[in-house]
């Protein structure tokens, strides 16, 4: 396996609007545009062929600023931008994308690269997936060709279907099969990332997975008891809670989904708490507080210890949502 040369732009080099003579004033204007329109995306400053600075935005909120040197990234305080770029005219690119894409780019930027290699064809790709499974690998995976790119997350050897996207050079696919489209590509450049438990991106990921596993366990039990009609009522009530905040959290086909890009784990916990409070209130009115607590508690205890841990850390526990 050999590592192939990288493109000066780490992510989606075919995308975005480029200002070839970008200035500090232009950078400020792009930040204002993303912030005021609550857009997910990034502004990339091409400092040199091997050095870039990326300002990543989550629904208009600056999630982080990162210095990339030879594909390796590290956090950079925006106030210290002048230490790597003196403001002279340089290419500045602005890219917009869906929140799920932003979450995965964030994970890649906040993780440490643990490996780089090349894979040729679907057979090698299948063997590599089996290797990650047997190793119980955890971390983000980038798969890149000249035209396509994918980032997905593996937790203890298993791919998290909801934490993946595929970009084919024209559009993004954010489905559970996104990573499977990679196997049809040739000459894949692979970058593996070791997860960083202390990072905001990793904390948000693990909390998100915990709340979805628990929430969908609760919804399944509740629907068995009360039927689809009351689940639709819960869906409407949760929409009423999330819409004023702009949270992209919803129930679809009796399944709780999180397609928001939270840039702080505390903010995510606040949103999840509001949703579970509303769900617990409705359940209490319909089946009674005692049975509500039983459903919440049994589904919570059915989660693995690692899945419960981030929920407990933010007191997203059965006792908090039932009287």
Rg from alpha-carbon coordinates: 21 Å
Q: What is the ordering of alpha helices and beta strands?
A: EHEEEEEHEHEEEEEHHEEHHH
Uncertain spans: 1-7
| Strand residue content | 25-35%
Quantity of strands, as a count: 14
What is the 3D form?
globular
Walk me through what this model shows.
By secondary structure, the chain is an alpha+beta fold. The protein has 3 domains: 1-96, no CATH class; 99-195, no CATH class; 200-320. The chain contains 8 helices and 14 strands. It has a 6-stranded antiparallel beta sheet, sandwiched between helices. It has a 6-stranded antiparallel beta sheet with strand order 7-12-8-9-10-11, sandwiched between helices. Strands 13-14 form a two-stranded antiparallel ribbon. Strand 8 and strand 9 form a beta hairpin. Helix 4 (200-226) packs antiparallel against helix 5 (228-242), helix 4 runs parallel beside helix 6 (265-287) and helix 5 (228-242) runs antiparallel to helix 6 (265-287). It is globular, with a radius of gyration of 21 Å. The N and C termini lie far apart (58 Å). Residues 1-7 have low confidence and may be disordered.
List its salient traits.
6-stranded antiparallel sheet; 14 strands; disordered N terminus; alpha+beta; 3 domains; globular; 39% helix; 323 residues
């Amino acid at each position: 396996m050999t590592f192939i040369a990288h493109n000066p732009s780490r992510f989606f080099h075919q995308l975005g609007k480029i200002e070839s003579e970008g200035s500090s004033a232009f950078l400020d204007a792009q930040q204002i545009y993303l912030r005021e329109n609550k857009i997910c995306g990034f502004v990339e400053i091409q400092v040199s062929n091997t050095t870039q600075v990326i300002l990543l935005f989550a629904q208009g909120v600056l999630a982080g600023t990162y210095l990339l040197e030879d594909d390796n990234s590290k956090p950079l305080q925006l106030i210290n931008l002048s230490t790597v770029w003196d403001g002279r005219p340089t290419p500045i690119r602005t890219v917009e994308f869906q929140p799920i894409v932003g979450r995965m780019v964030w994970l890649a930027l906040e993780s440490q690269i643990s490996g780089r290699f090349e894979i040729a064809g679907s057979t090698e790709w299948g063997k590599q997936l089996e290797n990650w499974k047997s190793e119980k690998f955890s971390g983000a995976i980038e798969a890149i060709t000249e035209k396509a790119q994918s980032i997905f997350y593996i937790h203890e050897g298993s791919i998290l279907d909801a934490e993946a996207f595929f970009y084919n050079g024209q559009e993004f696919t954010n489905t559970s099969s996104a990573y499977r489209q990679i196997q049809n590509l040739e000459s894949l450049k692979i970058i593996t990332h070791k997860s960083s438990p202390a990072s905001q991106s990793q904390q948000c990921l693990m909390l998100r997975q915990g709340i979805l596993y628990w929430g969908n366990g609760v919804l399944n039990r509740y629907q068995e008891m009360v039927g689809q009609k009351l689940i639709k009522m819960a869906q409407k009530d949760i929409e009423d809670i999330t819409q004023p905040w702009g949270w992209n959290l919803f129930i679809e086909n009796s399944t709780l989904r999180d397609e928001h890009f939270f840039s702080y784990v505390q903010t995510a916990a606040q949103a999840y708490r509001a949703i579970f409070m509303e769900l617990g209130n409705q359940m209490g009115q319909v089946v009674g507080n005692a049975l509500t607590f039983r459903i919440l508690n049994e589904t919570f205890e059915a989660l693995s210890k690692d899945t419960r841990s981030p929920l407990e850390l933010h007191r997203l526990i059965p006792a908090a949502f039932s009287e």
